[in-house]
Design brief:
Length: 202
Amino acid sequence: MKILVTGFEPFGGESVNPSWLAVSRLPEEVPGAQIVKKQLPVVWFKALDILKDYIEAEKPDVVMMCGQAGGSDAMRIERVGINLCEASIPDNEMVQLFGVPIDPEGPAAYFSTFPYGPMLEAAQATGVPTRFSYSAGAYLCNHVLYGCLRLAEQQYPDLRAGFIHVPFLPEQVTDKKPGTPSMPLDGIARVLLAFVETIAKN
């Protein structure tokens, strides 16, 4: 099995993106699977085009996309991607979209095709707060989730895909509102490892 795992570059004025830092810590392989790690830009449609190129080149069995969810107090296994580009901030090329469909001919939403239950159990066994989430927002994280699931339906029917949101790192919240949640990088990386190990088994 081959698992493609992606994280995003920094955005929104941040100097780091914990999703990519944690993805970078993953090993090259786990029992039963090879892991391919790639970074995506925080740029509308370009991120999706690059992801499609990675999928075409690597022919993975599973795509696990990861991104930062500032303000979250737990790791989040996203369940749904919606056909919408909309955000209160611009992307890294200063483009801001509102009410734009990802694919005008696509359905309103797709469900992730991850093995949800075993993944949640494996994450909870690490002791790191983890939960299901039913909205990946409408920014770049949702953009690649929906786009990847749309691509799977159209071209790669055996491809399984889903998205993981990770919290801020402690160093990212020092200049933010007191009480803003964060999570150490070790904890984030530990859960991502549990996820890929579980996917390889399921």
